[in-house]
Amino acid sequence: MTDIVVALRKITKTFPGIKANDGVDFELRKGEIHTLLGENGAGKSTLMNIIDGIYQPDSGEIEINGKKVHIKSPSDAMKNGIGMIHQHFMLVDSLTVLENVLLGLTSAGFYVDKKKVAAKITAISDRYNLGIDPFTKIWQLSVGEQQRVEVIKTLFRGAQILILDEPTAVLAPQEVEETFKIYRQMVQEGKSIIFISHKLNEIMDISDRITVLRKGKAIGTVDKDKTSEKDLAKMMVGREILFRLERGPLNRGEKILQVENVKALNDKGLTALNGITFDIYGGEIFGLAGIAGNGQKILSDVIAGLRKSISGSVYIDGKDLTNANPKEIFEQGLSYVPPDRLKVGLVPNLSSSDNAVLRHYNREPISRNTFINYTEVENYTDHLIKNYDIKVPRKDAPVKFLSGGNMQKLLLAREISEKPKLLVVVHPTRGLDIGAMEFIRTVLLRERDNGVAILLISEDLDEIFMISDRIGVIHDGRILDIVDIEQAKVERIGLLMAGLDEKSTQ
Amino acid sequence: MTEQSSILVTLSASAVRSGTILLFPTLGEIITERSGVINLGIEGMMIIGALFGFITGNLTHSPYIGFLVGMLAGGLTSLIHAFISITLRGNQIVSGLALTIFGLGLTNFFGQDWINKKFTIPVSSIAIPGLSKIPVIGPVLFNQDIFVYFSYILVVFMWFVLFKTRTGIHLRALGENAQAAGAMGVEVNKSRYWWTFFGGLMAGAGGAYLTLVYAPFWLDGITAGRGWIAVALVIFAMWNPLYAVIGAYLFGGIDSVQFQLQASGTTIPSSLLNMQPYLMTFIVVIAATIVLRKRHIGTPRELGIPYSREEK
Ligand SMILES: Nc1ncnc2c1ncn2[C@@H]1O[C@H](COP(=O)(O)OP(=O)(O)O)[C@@H](O)[C@H]1O
Ligand SMILES: [Mg+2]
């Protein structure tokens, strides 16, 4: 008799160039929510994929309900009552909810009685209050709804052990609360949950126990009641984390960016920017706060020359660059860290070295007489890797294999070494763990002290308050107010972001 | 019935037979592509099916055994492609093209002794009682040979499997998101092998029908680009077996007119006529692309992408 439903013993898994799991021990008790905490790249997903039979461990053992098992495939895992909700959803967009549920279900016959299956799906949906219609196609659902479809999929198969890989990363705060209610209901019914996250406040809210993973190794397991956010952060990163960053006095320089009454349309041809005006000076960080979709991305694209404005003007360091092409704008001293690092910032299938030199491949010393000097490329990449503490298993492997934090560091490193006058960064720390967040914010502050004008666009209000000198709030394509950090109050900024408080002065 | 309309009926009936040559491989490739594998070797598999079906038919004096062997020959050929693209995870476009060249070369070599030989056992038409009496439709669709009826059954069956059964859900998921299918316990690579093999069987069937029933003789390169039309018809059909019928008969009709023209010794230069399949392929692809863009239906999303469970 045991109440341990999953036990992992000395699990090791190596990928080319990296030990993703290194002798990991882990135990899940019946009826508990056990959080797996770790920075990006710590090996959490790999470990869970091993339980789910997607990956095979190099060594180590798995016990389910006290019995040693070999899980060779996801269907094996299913037979053992394990259901996993992956970080990247395993849903087929063009199929309906019902068809996705049926996928791989061996108990269903050849011909599918859709009515019967639909009734069962609706029953599950009602019981947990999920609000999912079985006949909707996946692509018609929001991300939150898609996640609930994943929940239905695992419950439909009778999973007793649920693995949730960073489910909250894609959810809005209210959705997180609702999702947690579902999890609590599930454990009350005797199911057991492994929950993955690196958001400390959530973890303190939902977990019974927490196991921390760092660089592939299990650092320790603690009870929620006997720990704190600070302790967890320390375990996760391996050192003290600064929740406050040191910031030197503001040394305002010349006016670098001047945006005047800019209007622009979005992809659907609707007005997305409705007369935006603001300036940024050298040596300051201008934080632009706002809820997603209020024109932030359009604004950064207009500044970077990736989208045309329909009226208004943009000056960088005194030069009119309204609707100029990106090359001209870059040459005038702009560096840009776009919101989508893997789509716009980096080329996923090129190597880290190739990505590192994307901005200067056509300049001395990287390029000489149209030929690329690969020794220089290597040197340059090594230099970035060292100065920015970027973890790159192999420089010649596609950059998409790096963890999010390391991709972002590489991108930022590349952009900053261009010695820009103006640095536009959009969601620089989104999806990153706190170690990487702290690093990136520190780098931004250092550049500010070096006299760079920085536009920080972020949805993370903590981040904005932590490093900005002035805060502007964008709502519905307009900047509602701009305040100095000393005068800024979180409550008022929050109201402005929701469009509830008009500016007093500007 | 007036004489004009009776000519039209004869022509249409012949268009159906000619279209059947295209229909088999199109159906097969629809399934192969739905599973996420693109096989551009249809022309090669078809002509291998055509030759070996023809030879077997002649040796056994049975069009049916010939047809089955033709299918099998196409199926076996497709396994080369399956091995390269699924097991070795090689480039599917290159492998498919190589398969076509391989098929043309192989049949050129083994077909030499059979050039201009005929298959003399006729496959008679069977009028379906009742249905064949329907004006126009009856004589066109329901007074055909058994292979044509076989293709009807296949169309309906494939539509049913694709959209009404669990096998069909698997199949569609394979081409759309293999990782998801794999995570749900579908054996991705094994299934893809089967569906690629099925595509080969169908291509072989089209070829065998050509040399055993439609022509019925052997000539070097007798498929004359029909495999490429089938590739285009898959797009035209939007990967749906029902639409494949329309496309196949439409282009079968054009093909059969050309065939009659050539047989009757027209003044149109034969090189121009021989261009026709390739021209058709262009037209189909252009037309289909325009339609697809309007209706937001696209290629199976992971078409041509090999799968490995541990690959990121
Ligand atoms: N399929 C794979 N191929 C190669 N490397 C991988 C693969 N999956 C994960 N990795 C690497 O293993 C490490 C651990 O990754 P992962 O388990 O996804 O971390 P986490 O989920 O904790 O963020 C990372 O360095 C990642 O780049
Ligand atoms: Mg992960």
Overview in brief:
The complex is a heterodimer of chains A (506) and B (312). Chain A is α/β, with parallel strands linked by helices and 506 residues long.
Task: Characterise the protein shown here.
The complex is a heterodimer of chains A (506) and B (312). Chain A contains 17 helices and 22 strands. In chain A, helix 14 packs parallel to helix 15. Chain A has three domains: 4-237, Rossmann fold (3-Layer(aba) Sandwich), CATH 3.40.50; 247-333 and 421-506, Rossmann fold (3-Layer(aba) Sandwich); 345-419, no CATH class. Chain A is of the alpha/beta class. Chain B has helices spanning 3-34, 42-60, 63-87, 92-110, 137-141, 146-164, 166-176, 178-183, 188-214, 226-236, 241-263, 270-295; strands at 126-127, 143-144. With 312 residues, chain B is mainly alpha-helical. In chain B, strands 1-2 form a two-stranded antiparallel sheet. The radius of gyration of chain B is 19 Å and the shape is globular. At the A-B interface, helix 2 and helix 3 of A face helix 7 and helix 8 of B.
What order do the helices and strands come in, and which of them pair?
The complex is a heterodimer of chains A (506) and B (312).
Chain A: E1 4-15, E2 18-29, E3 33-37, H1 44-51, E4 59-64, E5 67-69, H2 74-79, E6 82-85, H3 97-102, H4 114-127, H5 143-156, E7 161-164, H6 173-188, E8 192-197, H7 200-206, E9 209-214, E10 217-223, H8 229-237, E11 255-265, E12 271-281, E13 285-289, H9 296-304, E14 311-316, E15 319-320, H10 326-331, E16 334-337, H11 341-345, H12 352-356, E17 367-368, E18 371-372, H13 374-387, H14 404-416, E19 422-426, H15 434-449, E20 453-458, H16 461-467, E21 470-475, E22 478-484, H17 490-497
Parallel strand pairs in A: 3-8, 3-9, 6-7, 7-8, 13-20, 13-21, 16-19, 19-20
Antiparallel strand pairs in A: 1-2, 1-4, 4-5, 9-10, 11-12, 11-14, 14-15, 17-18, 21-22
Chain B: H1 3-34, H2 42-60, H3 63-87, H4 92-110, E1 126-127, H5 137-141, E2 143-144, H6 146-164, H7 166-176, H8 178-183, H9 188-214, H10 226-236, H11 241-263, H12 270-295
The structure holds adenosine-5'-diphosphate and magnesium ion.
